[in-house]
Amino acid sequence: VVSACMRNLYKVEGSPEWHEPTNIYSVIIADPSERKSANIVLVKKPIDEFVKEYNAAHKVEFEMSKATKQRLENKKNSLLSTSKKKGADDFNDELRGVVEQLVNFEEKKPLKVYVDDTTPEKLVETLAGNNNAISIISSEGGIFDVLSGAYSSKVNIDVFLKAYSGENISVDRIMRTSLSVEDACLTILLSVQPVVIGDLMKNKRFRHRGLTARFLYTHPRTLVGERKLNTRPIAP
User: Phi/psi at 25 (nearest 5 deg)?
Assistant: First the structure.
């Protein structure tokens, strides 16, 4: 699901006019000492290893891409500066060529598959700079605290509502760069304590706007006191 979501490769067709993205919002509910963190770490391990190896293998490529973009930016600024000094239009053709290269240039960036702790504003920025897709994977429910207004009285949950359905997101703010995300794709996997879900369900705004309804909830049977110590390891 993460791989498919990251590239927006697949959608489910319920009927010719009904399509759904493959991303899922999921929450595992468990009490303390249920090994929530240990299981999330285990799930993330192959992802972390792949991302680390991929970014290390393409490090030079990323730096060259960044340097190429910077060179184009410098050339554009130089042409603008020269044209102002001389007050001539002779540079328009050359400037247009550089601007076209910049507009069509796709900077190669390090692979990012998921984030742990984020805010709605930062999440839109991350989506816009990460091929319109990202995942939130965390062994805590801190993101719900953020959405509930623990750090700000004005919290915008639109990104979570729209990314679930694969909608376009456009953000324009005064004194900030405009952001545009096409076919937003967000996958969420959280493991939280029951008290976190209790507080979440009490939030009428979340319920009426459909945020809580977008999650799949699972409450596994407790294994505390019943775990087997001698178990077969997971095959490589």
Answer: -100, 120
